[in-house]
Amino acid sequence: MSALEIGGHVDDPVEAAHCDGFPIAQTFIGDPQAWKGHAVAHPGGAAGLKADAEAAGVGLFIHAPYVINVATTNNRIRIPSRQILARQVKLATEVGARGVIVHGGHVTAGDDPQVGFDNWRKAIEGLDLTVPIFIENTAGGTNSMARRLERIAQLWETISDAKGFENVGFCLDTCHAHAGGLDPSGLVDAITGITGRIDLVHLNDSRDAAGSGADRHAVLGQGQCEADYLVEVVRQADAPVILETPTTEVSHAEQIAWLRARL
Asked: What are the Cα distances from residue 237, in Å, to 2, 4, 13, 152, 196?
């Protein structure tokens, strides 16, 4: 495997680079639960963050707001979701980020899932992807676009013809896969067999049981994911790794040490 880049989701990626030695870090631009007001809260704005991150030697990833759902048939959600995602891509470009991570979204009961896949295709074609977006698998929901392997396959088949598809990648979240009921055995091969790529790993343990549908992250080695599963995903994906785990009792640095000891 290539030299492994590991970092965490943090409020201040520049500080994380200085204090924890992170070579990469993920952060939000704006409130992840808000529809409005997304801006770079850093001295000097976007240009300041870009310059400071470059000086600190930290690569940036931006996690798009949780409210985004470009798959939905609800115009009052889908249209602003597209607008927010476009805004996030623009800001990510300005800060020099390596990618924007966005959840796969869902349709509602009674909707044809294919409409959701088509909405994703239209969303991609409407974006100016000056940085790539990475679609992330999700933990719950029977109508999710990216929970089950068969749905991920349908999504990828639909968006593969979209203009700009070459700038669409995949983010594999280990907690979401566990909670979503995906078979941990051969998971990386199963995903890459569908998408052809894994661009980023969200390495998270799970508070809840396999197949629970609950998106509740736990400290590495303290949740219900098998340690071997977490380690093998990192080893086989051969992609940058971001921890989104709790840090109140065990720091990201300590959890990274736990991982490296097992690698």
From this structure: 10, 10, 24, 17, 11
For residues 250, 258, 217, 106, the Cα torsion angle rounded to the nearest 10 degrees is 150
CB 130 within 8 A of CB 62: no
CA-based end-to-end distance of the chain: 11
Instruction: Compute the distance between CA of residue 76 and CA of residue 81 in angstroms, rounded to an integer.
Output: 9
What letter represents residue 129's amino acid? L
Q: How far apart are CA 263 and CA 260, in angstroms?
A: 5
- Alpha-carbon gap, residue 194 to 263, rounded angstroms: 26
Residue type at 75?
Answer: N
Structure tokens, 24 = 């990469």
CA 130 to chain centre: 18
Count Cβ atoms within 10 A of the Cβ of residue 78 and give its class: 0-12 exposed, 13-18 middle, 19 or more buried: buried
Ordered domains of the chain (ranges, CATH): 60-262 (3.20.20.150)
- Whether 49 and 4 have beta carbons less than 8 Å apart is answered as no
The pTM of the full predicted model, rounded to 2 decimals, is 0.97
Successive 10-residue mean pLDDT values, the chain, 263 residues: 88 96 97 96 97 98 98 98 98 98 97 98 98 98 96 98 98 98 97 98 98 97 98 98 97 97 96
